[in-house]
């Protein structure tokens, strides 16, 4: 899976707006047959053990359907993000850093990546699968938004994660269908945040 000479990471969450070090190439694109959802809890970045936050993970369409997820939005059929090529001289160092950063429930998997400009190749993505302890499973956008609007962790307020991710996806892929799930979640989160002030 890990080839230091050809080490590509696919960012679909915080890696997009807080990218890994030693990047030599940054390519916008997407993965298919996947859904992005805030179904992973966070106690080490955007929440605490007492009040876990929510962060994104990727689910295959098969797993998403099996767990009772509903395909509510057009963007549920393609997950847009960015692929990062890591300088081979620092590949081992970066892998160790990302392993540590994603230690709370995420595991590396290989996914076929499609570049927006054309071409495709394999990328490593860190995914919180359904069998990890931090996996929450299906939650409505309303339930997730309520949590995101109030939780804070060592990396800052949970709402900042959502705001940064939604903005990054919109700017990376302005000509494509927006991620309606992220847009809806942000709208709800801002509403709950305003109501709590």
From TrEMBL:
What would be one Pfam family of this protein? ChaC
GO CC, one annotated term:
cytoplasm
Is the Glycoprotein keyword given for this protein? Answer: no
Q: Which GO terms describe its molecular function?
A: glutathione specific gamma-glutamylcyclotransferase activity
EC number assigned by the record: 4.3.2.7
InterPro entries with a match to the protein in the record = ChaC (IPR006840), GGCT-like (IPR013024), GGCT-like_sf (IPR036568)
The protein in question is named glutathione-specific gamma-glutamylcyclotransferase
Q: Which organism is it from?
A: Starmerella bacillaris (Yeast)
